[in-house]
Each structure stands twice: as structure tokens, then as C-alpha cells.
């Protein structure tokens, strides 16, 4: 485990909530221990697992999907999206959580733009937790299932992010400070449109925007919305990566796809994403904290 990973976890340990009793943690060498005595080992790769009880039904991304995503992101193709997310987050000296962080690419961009902030990369996949631990020197990595409840104390965070990932609005509202914000990036119907048909990719639900609004209602008020849309020039390897890193990566092996091989050497593909910013409603009637086992 790198010193940076240990330091990042130590910096946010008091904001994390024990999944057994809900108390905060104190870092002790390679362990996080709560006031009741529950302890969770910090893995040698630098992340802490706060998964307890029965196995989660959430599978998360595979290692191959994350490899494809890292390769695509390293080419800078989604840099305008990362910049828009960082701009929506704005300046903060608090702690930023990314739900479904994957490679930690977007959280790292936020932390680069906010030098006084700390970050928590949360994901349900071990392969993502390993990547999250090395995404940024100020990013702590936590393995957890957001749908069971975020292992974060009430009102502890200044920002929460969800970029191309499932989200839990009730839990996001619970862990945010009253003046915090929830930044969500979702694809529009035009996102990767030139590839969806020819390569049989999973399509974007045309009703996605309405369903997002309904899910946020009762927890958040909308503050801002911005569409980030531009054209990318992708080579065949880039196309293989963008197919393999998304939902279609669960269903197909794109390493030797003849449809990609038959494409022109370079294709123009649309990136189109809606970046929405929400603020928690002043009163969250009936909100509940992280469920603990009795």
C-alpha cells in the first residue's frame, strides 16, 4: 500500500460510517476501527472494503471493462466531459464522493481543480476499488454497495458525483451538507449514436432524463443543466475500447469484432452528455441513515 493511499484514507476516516453500527472510524496502521471496536482491514492495494453480510447482487464493471475505460480515457476523448463535471462541482475545500467511480478519472479531475478538497472513490467492484486507490493522491478508495446504503456519516460531504453510473438519491441527500451539491452526468440519445446501430451497442433510454427528474424529486432541487456535445475522431482501437468499457462490455467480446475491423481507419463519433447539478432540499422528510445490522 502506498503512503498516499494510507494518507487519503486517514484524511476521510472520520467521515466514513461503520456499516455495522454507523460510528465513524479512526485509522490504526492498516485498519480502520470504529468506537464500538468493529475493524476493517485496509487491503494491500490501498482500499478498504466496507461490504458486510450477504454477497451483493451488484456486479459492477469487470477488470476488462475497466482496462478498456482507462485506455479510452487516457486518450483524452472524454476530457471535455471531465472538465464540465469539474466546473459543475466548482471550488470546494470539503470532501467529494464519486459513486460508481470506476477508474476514478472524473474524481481525479475534480480534485485537480480543487486543491484543498479530499475525495472518496466508491465502487462495488474490487477491480475498481484497486484503481480508485491510485487514481489521485487525495482520493481514498472504498469498496461498498451504494444501494445498501452509503457508508458515510450524515451531512459529511460537500459534493457527490455520479458519472455514467447508477445513483441512490436518498442516500446522496443524507450524506451531503445543506449547502452541498449532487453532480450527475448522463448520456443523451445522441451519445455514440454513430456506433450504436452498426455495433449493436446498448441504446440510451429516450425517457432517461424524465426518469432522472422523478428519481431526484423529493430529495433535491435542480440548480443547473448543461449539455456537453462534440465530435470525436476515433481509431479502431478507440472504438473497441468505447464499446468494451460500457454496458455492452458485459455482453460481448470486442477484441476481434469483424464489424470494427471493417470500419474506416478513423470515424467521427458524437459525445453528448447532460451534466445536471442538484442541491439537497432543506427538509428530507423520512430520511434514514445507513442501515446497520442488529
Q: Briefly, what is this?
A:
The protein has 294 residues and is of the alpha/beta class.
What would your notes on this structure say?
α3 packs across α4. The protein has helices spanning 3-12, 63-74, 79-89, 105-113, 126-132, 169-175, 193-199, 208-216, 236-245, 258-261; strands spanning 25-28, 31-34, 39-41, 47-49, 95-99, 118-123, 139-143, 157-163, 176-187, 220-235, 266-280. 29% of the residues lie in helices and 27% in strands. The protein is globular, with a radius of gyration of 19 Å. The strands form two sheets. Strands 4-7-6-5-8-9-11-10 form an eight-stranded mixed β-sheet, sandwiched between helices. Strands 1-2-3 form a three-stranded antiparallel β-sheet, with no helix packed on it. It is α/β, with parallel strands linked by helices and 294 residues long. β5 (95-99), α4 and β6 form a beta-alpha-beta unit.
Topology:
Elements: H1 3-12, E1 25-28, E2 31-34, E3 39-41, E4 47-49, H2 63-74, H3 79-89, E5 95-99, H4 105-113, E6 118-123, H5 126-132, E7 139-143, E8 157-163, H6 169-175, E9 176-187, H7 193-199, H8 208-216, E10 220-235, H9 236-245, H10 258-261, E11 266-280
Helix pairs in contact: 2-9, 3-4
**How many strands, which pairing sense, and closed or not: the largest β-sheet?**
8 strands, mixed
Alpha-beta classification: alpha/beta
Mean pLDDT: 89
Describe the strand arrangement of the main beta sheet, using strand numbers: 4-7-6-5-8-9-11-10
As a whole number of angstroms, the C-alpha radius of gyration is 19 Å
- Strand/helix succession: HEEEEHHEHEHEEHEHHEHHE
Approximate strand percentage:
25-35%
In whole angstroms, the N-to-C terminal distance is: 33 Å
Please give the count of helices. 10
Helix content: 25-40%
Low-pLDDT regions? 288-294
| Overall geometry | globular
The strand count comes to: 11
